[in-house]
Design brief:
Elements (H helix, E strand, L loop, with lengths): L2 E3 L6 E3 L1 E4 L3 H5 L2 H13 L4 E3 L8 H13 L7 E6 L17 H15 L4 E6 L8 H13 L3 E6 L4 H13 L7 E2 L9 H6 L1 H7 L2 E4 L28 H7 L2 H17 L3 H10 L4 E6 L4 H7 L2 H5 L4 H11 L13
Parallel strand pairs: 3-4, 3-10, 4-5, 5-6, 6-7, 7-8, 8-9, 9-10
Antiparallel strand pairs: 1-2
The protein binds NADPH dihydro-nicotinamide-adenine-dinucleotide phosphate.
The site of NADPH dihydro-nicotinamide-adenine-dinucleotide phosphate has 29 residues, from strand 10 and helix 12.
Length: 333
């Protein structure tokens, strides 16, 4: 396992990490969740990603119990939570979600309890909140850091100009600026990370923990011949995700990727994850898995990344046709 700095911050995260969305507290048993965490930790993963909204807080409860049971030294792993969507069942009351000072504080305290930890290493604003001034959220996050309840705060799926605004507000008010962003990034969707955020890496030293490197499993090739039973896009409550992810033009690209992977002696998953690792702005690629064998396979991506030469990366760009063009009207503030 290789370790990378979280942007310009001193803390180091494993370049592959493990997240719990859809799986922990929902799709998989607690025993499988525990086996996944052990496989991850033994493979060198030091960063576990979670959020208040995952399985309405149950994902954090499960992870917290496992961390407590396994008793790994606290200075050998990092835990992340995220605030915005709320953990209360719907319909939620007005202050049970969003980025107001009230909800940010309450979400942090609830996550600490569920995860059974004294502090969160990383705390993300899971989306931006048009109903809260950015200054209010920046101050709340900065205060949590001053209180020692959070070590680093960041954003997730924010526009570049929103991240810049948070950073500027923090600088002007002598508060702590955001350290990292958690965007969607994979071979099918590259614009935001490679184009829209381009200036933020040098300018504010932004780190990235990227999600869905396999586009919810699509890039494994498992959906090329229909919907396999027992797979995420076949889950009853995730029809919205299936509609978002499964598009005929994408399936053709996935087929081409599978062919190249075969020629390289890699699985499509390993190739897709290794490709994410080649972006030097990425601090960590967050993996998801519903089975230990999947994680075992995906952990091979670090070694595979070394095989991806500039010529191969160029071939992949041409084959997938998703490399952003400078003329794209991405939001460049
Ligand atoms: P992926 O795109 O890698 O999808 C993971 C899923 O793909 C697995 O659960 C499994 O689903 C399938 N899969 C993975 N590996 C294999 C394999 N080798 N062979 C076959 N199938 C495989 O990542 P996620 O979408 O899960 O995202 C990773 C993490 O990122 C999340 O857990 C979460 O922590 C974070 N995230 C953050 C978001 C944000 O807004 N900040 C949003 C979404 C995720 P199955 O077996 O069920 O088909």
């Amino acid at each position: 396992m290789n370790y990378r700095r979280l942007g310009k911050a001193g803390v180091k995260v494993s370049e592959l990490s493990l997240g719990s969305w859809v799986t922990f507290g929902e799709q998989i048993s607690d025993d499988v969740a525990e086996a996944l965490m052990i496989k991850a930790y033994d493979g060198g993963i030091n960063f576990f990603d979670n959020a208040e909204g995952y399985a309405s807080g149950r994902s954090e409860l499960v992870m917290g119990k496992i961390l407590r049971k396994l008793g790994w030294p606290r200075d050998t792993w990092l835990i992340a939570s995220k605030v915005f969507f709320g953990s209360a069942e719907h319909p939620q009351k007005p202050n049970q979600y969003g980025l107001s000072r009230k909800h940010v504080f309450e979400a942090c305290h609830a996550a600490l309890k569920r995860l059974q930890v004294d502090y969160l290493d990383l705390f993300f604003c899971h989306r931006s909140d048009p109903e809260t001034p950015i200054e209010e959220t920046v101050r709340a996050m900065s205060d949590l850091i001053a209180q020692g309840k959070v070590l680093y705060w960041g954003t997730s799926v924010w526009k570049a100009h929103e991240i810049m605004e948070a950073w500027s507000v923090a600088r002007e008010s002598h508060l702590v600026p955001p350290t990292m962003e958690q965007p969607y990034y994979n071979l099918l969707q590259r614009d935001r990370v490679e184009l829209e955020y381009a200036r933020l890496y040098d300018r504010i030293g932004l780190g990235l923990t990227v999600w869905s490197p396999l586009a919810s499993g699509l890039l494994t090739g498992k959906y090329s011949d229909g919907l396999p039973k027992d797979s995420r896009l076949g889950l009853e409550n995730y029809g919205w995700l299936r509609d978002w992810v499964l598009k005929p033009e994408r399936l053709e690209k996935v087929r081409r990727l599978g062919k190249l992977a075969g020629e390289l002696g890699l699985s499509p998953s390993v190739l897709a994850i290794a490709w994410c690792l080649k972006n030097p702005h990425v601090s960590s690629v967050i993996l998801g898995a519903s089975k230990v064998a999947q994680l075992e396979e995906n952990l091979q991506a670090s070694a595979a990344a070394e095989k991806l030469t500039p010529e191969l990366l160029k071939q992949i760009d041409e084959m997938m046709g998703t490399k952003p063009k400078e003329t794209s009207n991405a939001d460049n503030h």
